[in-house]
Amino acid sequence: MTLRPTHAEEVQEAVRSHRRVLPRGGGTKPSLSTPGENQTVLEMSGLSGVIEYNPSEYVFVARAGTRLAEVETLLAQNGQYLPFDPPFVEQGATLGGTVAAGLSGPMRQRYGGVRDFILGVQFVDGTGSLVRGGGKVVKNAAGFDLPKLMVGSLGRLGILTELAFKVFPFPRATSTLKVAFPTLQDTLEALYKLAGSPIELYALDIEPPSTLVLRLGGLAEALPARLERLQSFLEMNGELLQREAETSYWRGLNNLGSLGDGLLVKLAITADQIPGLDKALLTTPRRYISAGNLLYLAWEEPLEELDALLKSQGRSGLILSGPAPQPKIGLDLEPVFGHKVTAALDPQEKFADLQVGS
Amino acid sequence: MNSALGELERLFPPGRFLVKPGQLAPYESDALTAFRARPLAVVLPETHEEVVQVVRWSARHQVPFVARGSGTSLSGGSLPIDGGVVIGLNRMNKLLRLDVLERIAVVQPGFINLQVSSIAAPYGLYYAPDPSSQPVSTIGGNLAFNSGGAHCLKYGMTSNHVLAARVVLPSGEVVELGSQSLENTGPDWLGLFVGSEGLMGIATEVTLRLLPRPEIYHTVLAAYDSLAKAGDAVAAVVASGLLPGAMEIMDSLAIEAAEAAVRAGYPLEARALLIVELEGEVPQVEAEARHLEAVIRASGAYEVRVAQNSDERMRIWKGRKAAFSAVGRLSPDYLVQDGVVPRSQLGRALSEIEQLSTRYGLRVANVFHAGDGNLHPLILYNGRVEGELPRAEELAGEILKLCVGLGGSITGEHGVGMEKKAYMTEMFSETDLATMQRLRLALDPLELSNRGKMFPGGQAPARVHQGAHPREKGGVISRE
After folding, report:
1. Of the candidates B192, B212, B232, which is a domain's last residue?
2. Residue-wise DSSP of A325-337
3. Whole domain around residue B108: which residue ranges?
4. B201-239: per-residue pLDDT in tens?
């Protein structure tokens, strides 16, 4: 069954009157929004629209079903953007789905991920209560940080209805440099050198097998000098992407589905794990993002193999699309704390673990 | 109780188990000096295992506990619970690991904030959160209260710089929250724990993220003949698309006091001073500085100074950082609030504070983080004059309500603690608070961990006239 609430009250009512509920935004991460048995789907597109936006505050408030594309268009009219660079913008992803999945993109390198920009949240918990946490100012230490808790909560702790974010001005000009190294080892050495330097990059990705992709942003008049400095820092010139070619390159990558066929998986990692992982992933379409903190890959082999690989590396992963019995694989990080918090917000298991369609 | 206390005594050697009145006195209060309470005992663990043991002892005997670092909480966050135990963590002050390549530091909770940047400095790295208490405040306390500082618009708060923590839950169970990665694939449990004001347990190991030090700073001091013009200048800087690391404003009372204290060379007749600091790569900062200059020139500043070297930069900041304790010298006592307003409401908030100041007959000085709308009104009063403290508190409460009314928050960085818990209902509904309480009870069903803080209700401990914190009198820390 599918419901399409248009007010938070209707979400409350749905949670109270249905045995199990599953929110769905744009459906761009089907492994997280495909209902299991007896799950009522709450189609969240009815809770859409920006409620407050004052560009000079660097803050906006919007309903959770608002599409990222709508937000980005509005922000761009004022020279601003979502600094955590969420994926699937043109594919119809929503703010709520992005927060619930906890997804950020390459530009998280400059100022941080979705957890660093969420300021406030309103959600319906498993008892049907409408709860607010955080606020709509850029600095706030009052009460428990429920906005951060909801990042990556996968609809398991509550159904998001309204969100407040901090935003920043988009750089006046950007340029991208692709630098191919002979080996992955060389690439990682350059990555570490850059990440520990005062050079400020909007993106610091590794495109397999061994190319660093670096995005610079800032005032147009300073960009040529900064590019030269970057090239001399690396002692390599690389391939320069500018203007339309540059923006379309990054826009193309924003659609994670273009990575490849198979299961689309997000991994949270650190750069020192890349050599170990990469050996096992040689034929897997993949991209290392934000100085090796984030890995998206398209897995075409049996799921058990990836699960075993993650467990051997002490990591956990999240399946965003493709057939899988459940979206979380690898290690179950922090079961004790997690179970206590989950039981408090959802005592009747209204949002019980997802069972992706059989 | 005596047998329980005897059991606790056996867990610690004599020098680290304090029960005599003279030993307990230093722990009776924190930087919110208007409150004090006598704990049953103070223990000073040196290891994670000792923390686990004392928390398990507390759970067994249902004795509440408060974890404490240097006691610089301005909201009374580390105020003892009458009859409870204080777990002093200053001896757990070791650096456990510094990984320069991965840019992380793993420290014990008693490690001092500023020390993190000191140990990272030789490698061109630093720890971004910079509360004014940073020369003495500990990472454990910073984490519990999600401390801020002057750079929050651009860099975020403590929560944005903590990657992982080993936590002793109030049950005595030990959990590991977060990881070394900046990313996560499940709910952000660590995000919930940071800033939970000690209500969810004690962090015994904290993994911090270090950032590369900016290549260059560009620090501008602009003088205005009105506070409103300085506020408008901040709005203009933001509207120009610049993202300075810090923007700070001081009013005339604060300028006068800072000047008397440290002779920073500020223009004395100014009604408001604005400090703007850009930082980053040299070519970028040089270009931004030209844009900033144009914005400031158009903003009606009658005098503009640009720091020409790091000495001049430090001098500008010295006055700003000294302003708090300096204002304190103008009056025997003061209260400070840290409410937040949307930046566009700064001017309105300041003029309403001025009216409140007149109505209550108490002077209010303003020094604030303008970039993030975080006010720091200092309410001057004399605790020896009958009725002045309650009047100052009432005025402080009015200011908090004003902040919430303008769309802001009751606290930007000090936390709710004991001081502001009565104002939580201004910001949150009964349902919001009940949900937060459910979370708390799920982790701490007996409310042992920092009982009586953050949530409204409960009895306030004795209020006494005490004057400023000794560290504050010494100019080491300040209340912001």
Report:
1. B212
2. S-SEEE----HHH
3. 95-212
4. 999 999 999 999 999 999 999 999 998 899 889 989 998
> pLDDT > 70: what percent of chain B?
95
Q: Quick one: how far is CA B320 from the chain centroid?
A: 16
Residues 6+ apart with CB under 8 A from A352: A20, A346
- Among B271, B304, B326, identify where a domain stops: B326
The amino acid occupying position B223 is A
Query: What's residue A40's pLDDT?
Result: 95
Q: Which residues pair with A3 in a beta bridge?
A: A42
- CB distance B418 to B453 below 8 Å: yes
Nearest residue of A to residue B454, measured between CA atoms? A143
Contact A319, A339 (CB under 8 A): no
Cα–Cα nearest to B366, from B236, B225, B480, B233 = B480
Residues of chain A contacting B443 with CB distance shorter than 8 Å: 337, 340-341
Residue B457 pLDDT? 86
Instruction: List C-alpha distances in Å: B184 to A96, A308, B180, B381.
Output: 17, 19, 10, 48
Instruction: Report which of B287, B367, B429, B47 is spatially closest to residue A131, judged by C-alpha positions.
Output: B429
Looking at the structure, do residues B298 and B316 belong to the same domain, yes or no?
A: yes
- Shortest distance between the Cα of B446 and any Cα of chain A, in A, equals 14
Q: Partners of A164 in the beta sheet?
A: A61, A120
Q: Name chain A contacts of B177, Cβ cutoff 8 Å.
A: 334, 337
Contact residues, chain B, for A272 at CB < 8 Å: 101-102
Joined tokens for residue A179: 């630098």
Residue A198 has its nearest CB partner, among B180, B215, B440, at: B215
R_g (Cα) of chain A, nearest Å: 21
**CB-CB neighbours of B131 under 10 Å:** 24
For the residues of B364-407, what is the DSSP string, one character each? EEEEEEGGGTB--EEEEE-TTSTTHHHHHHHHHHHHHHHHHHTT
Residue A288 Rama label (left phi>0; alpha psi -120 to 50; beta): beta
- The average pLDDT across A87-108 equals 98
Q: Please give the Cα distance from B167 to B183 (Å, whole number).
A: 20
Contact flag A154-B101 (C-beta cutoff 8 Å): no
* ipTM for the predicted complex: 0.96
Contact A140, B409 (CB under 8 A): yes
Q: Shortest Cα distance from B101 to chain A (angstroms)?
A: 6
Domains, chain A? 2-169 (3.30.465.10), 173-254 (3.30.70.260), 256-330 (3.30.70.100)
- Tens digit of each residue's pLDDT (9 = 90 or more) over B280-305: 999 999 999 999 999 999 999 999 99
Is B354 a domain residue? Answer: no
